[in-house]
Amino acid sequence: MAEGILQIHSAPPALREHIEWAVGGIVALQGDWLWAAQPAAPGQVRAEIAFVAQPGASALVASALARFGQLRFEVSEERSPGADGARYSCTPSLGLLAASVSANGDIVVPEQRLKSALGATARDGSLRGEIRRLLGEDWDGELEPFRCAAGGFLAAAG
User: Fold this and answer.
1) Confidence (pTM)
2) Is 13 left (phi over 0), alpha (psi -120 to 50) or beta?
3) Which pLDDT does position 38 carry in this prediction?
4) Which are the contacts of 140, defined by CB distance < 8 A and separation ≥ 6?
């Protein structure tokens, strides 16, 4: 089994039950949903919840939530025997980023993705832009104000 964390950084309040239902149908939640106002987006709510599931379940959670189109969220899954760790970040403007992560949480870019980036830059010209995309820098930039506004929400709520 793999452990993970889901952080809903911002969501319309009307979607709370739909989010809970979608996620609960995929993973075993470790606690109750605790929703709070999101100061970085007035009128929106946020929540964080831990889960336990089969390795790879975070991809299913991310895919289900990305379909809502209005959410800002991150799903992370710890490494487990035979499976790399994973991080998914999603914003309405950027869509979904999927990344493998190391034990310390750094994004790891697999060889084939690097080769693809090098091929793309040979055609388009911007290696720096491709590396920024692979590392999720645009997602981090957009999500950081929402992370900061949460201010240790999981620890305070749990």
Assistant:
1) 0.86
2) alpha
3) 96
4) 89
Torsion of CA 111, 117, 120, 125, to 10 degrees: -140
> DSSP of 118-144, one letter per residue?
HHHHHHH--HHHHHHHHHTHHHHHHHH
CA–CA dist 156, 88 (Å, integer):
23
Secondary element (H or E) of residue 6: strand 2-11
Q: Which amino acid is at 22?
A: A
Mean pLDDT of 98-121: 85
Tell me the pairing of strands 28-29 and 45-53: antiparallel
pLDDT score for 65: 98
The chain-wide mean pLDDT, for the chain, equals: 89
Is residue 76 within 8 Å of residue 136, measured between CB atoms?
no
By the 10 Å C-beta count (0-12 exposed, 13-18 middle, 19+ buried), 151 is classed as: exposed
Residue 8 token pair? 């809903």
Half-sphere exposure for 70 (CA within 13 Å, toward CB): 14
Contact of 153 with 105, CB cutoff 8 Å: no
Question: Can you tell me which residue has the tokens 């189109």?
Answer: 69
More confident residue, 103 or 18: 18
